[in-house]
Specification:
By secondary structure, the chain is α+β, with helices and mostly antiparallel strands. It folds into 2 domains: 33-128, Killer Toxin P4, Chain A (2-Layer Sandwich), CATH 3.30.430; 143-242, 2-Layer Sandwich (Killer Toxin P4, Chain A), CATH 3.30.430.20. The protein contains 8 helices and 10 strands. The protein has helices at residues 2-6, 12-17, 19-26, 49-67, 93-106, 156-178, 207-222, 259-272; strands at residues 33-38, 69-74, 81-87, 116-120, 123-128, 143-146, 183-188, 195-201, 229-233, 237-242. The protein has a 5-stranded antiparallel β-sheet, covered by helices on one side. Strand 9 and strand 10 (237-242) form a beta hairpin. Helix 3 crosses helix 8 (259-272), helix 4 (49-67) packs antiparallel against helix 5 (93-106) and helix 6 packs antiparallel against helix 7. The protein is elongated, with a radius of gyration of 20 Å. The two termini are 25 Å apart. The site of one 2-acetamido-2-deoxy-beta-D-glucopyranose (NAG) has 6 residues, from loops.
C-alpha cells in the first residue's frame, strides 16, 4: 500500500467516502481485447493436449504474478506446447494479473487450434507448437488496426501538426524502447490535440529482434495518420498511439518510486470533475 503511506492526511476522507471510485481511478489493467487470432491448424486429438495446455497456462500465471511476463513449455508427453505471456511494463502486478486472466479466459476459445495469440490493451498471450520466444515478426499474422480521424482536424495546419506529432512519438518510443529493456512511452502535448504512444517488446526477444520488430511496427503504424489512434500487433512487440493518455505511468519516470503519488494525483483530478 505504497500510495497510502505517501498520501497527506487531509486527503484520507477521499478514500473513506469514495473507496470504490478511487480504486477504479487508481489503476487500469487495460484488459479489453483488441485482437484474438486462432491458428488455422487444428491439433489432432490427443489426450495429452488439453492437460499440457493447462499446465503451461498454470505456470505462466505464476511467472506473470512475479515478473509481469513469462514463458514455459511442456514437451512430454507430446504434443509439445509453448506458451508466453507479457504485460506492458507500466501495469502494476495486480493489473497485470487482471489483464492476463482476461486473456487466459478468452484464449481457450481457440482450442483445439494448435496455436493462438491474443492482444489486449495491456498484455499479450500466445501458445504454439514450437519455440517462438525470439520471433520478431510473422507476415501471416502481424496486424495494424487504425481508428478513424478526429473531427477537430479539419484545418490543414492542424492536420499537419497532428501528423508530425504522431511521427515524433512513434520515432521516440521506437528509439527509446530498444535501449530501455524493450519498453517506452512518449507524449507530445501543446496545440489542439496531444498524442501519446507506448511501445513494448516481449522480454524473450534479444535486442536485435526487438529493434527489428519496433521498426516494422512503427513504420506501419505511421500509416494510420491522420487516424486518431492505432495499434500495431506484432509477433514480437506492440506499439500504440492515441490522442488519449492510455498508459499508467509518467513519461521519463517509468518504475520510479513516485508511481504511487502519480496515481493519487490522477485520482484527485478525476474527483474534481464529479
Ligand atoms: C480494431 O480495433 C477496434 C477498436 O479497438 C476493435 O473493435 C476491432 O475489433 C479491431 N479489429 C480487429 C480485426 O481486431
Ligand atoms: C506445428 O503445427 C503445424 C500445423 O499443424 C505443423 O505443420 C507443424 O509440423 C507442427 N510443428 C511441430 C514442431 O510439431
Ligand atoms: C498422444 O498421447 C500419447 C499419450 O497420451 C503419447 O504417447 C503420444 O505420443 C501422443 N501422440 C502424438 C501424435 O502426439
Ligand atoms: C523522447 O521524448 C522525451 C520527452 O518526452 C525526451 O526527453 C527524449 O529525449 C526523447 N527521445 C528521443 C530518442 O527522441
Amino acid at each position: 500500500m505504497h500510495f497510502a503511506i505517501s498520501m497527506s492526511k487531509n486527503l484520507i476522507w477521499v478514500f473513506v467516502i469514495l473507496p470504490n471510485f478511487f480504486s477504479l481511478a487508481l489503476s487500469d489493467p487495460r484488459a479489453s481485447e483488441s485482437h484474438l487470432v486462432c491458428g488455422a491448424d487444428k491439433n489432432p486429438y490427443n489426450s495429452s493436449f488439453i492437460p499440457n495446455f493447462y499446465n503451461v497456462m498454470h505456470n505462466l500465471i505464476k511467472q506473470v504474478a512475479n515478473h509481469l511476463s513469462g514463458s514455459y513449455f511442456v514437451a512430454t508427453p507430446s504434443p509439445a506446447i509453448y506458451g508466453m505471456a507479457q504485460c506492458h511494463r507500466d501495469l502494476s502486478p495486480v493489473d497485470c494479473q487482471v489483464c492476463f486472466s482476461e486473456g487466459r479466459v478468452k484464449l481457450p476459445k481457440c482450442l483445439p487450434s494448435s496455436s493462438a495469440r491474443i492482444f489486449l490493451d495491456g498484455c499479450f498471450l500466445r501458445y504454439d507448437n514450437y519455440s517462438f520466444f525470439n520471433e520478431a515478426t510473422d507476415p501471416k499474422y502481424d496486424y495494424v488496426n487504425c481508428s478513424s480521424s478526429k473531427e477537430v482536424l479539419t484545418d490543414k495546419s492542424l492536420l499537419m501538426d497532428f501528423n508530425s506529432k504522431v511521427a515524433q512519438v512513434i520515432k521516440n518510443v521506437t528509439e527509446t524502447a530498444v535501449v530501455n529493456k524493450g519498453f517506452a512511452v512518449s507524449e507530445v502535448r501543446g496545440g489542439v490535440v496531444a498524442v501519446y504512444a507506448l511501445a513494448q517488446c516481449w522480454t524473450t526477444l534479444d535486442a536485435d529482434s526487438c529493434r527489428l520488430c519496433l521498426n516494422l511496427a512503427g513504420s506501419k503504424l505511421r500509416q494510420c495518420k491522420p487516424g486518431a489512434g492505432g495499434r500495431a500487433l506484432y509477433a514480437g512487440c506492440y506499439m500504440r498511439y492515441s490522442t488519449e493518455r492510455f498508459f499508467n505511468i509518467a513519461v521519463d519516470t517509468e518504475e520510479g518510486p513516485d508511481k504511487g503519488e502519480f496515481n493519487v494525483r490522477v485520482g484527485i483530478r478525476s474527483l474534481e470533475l464529479l
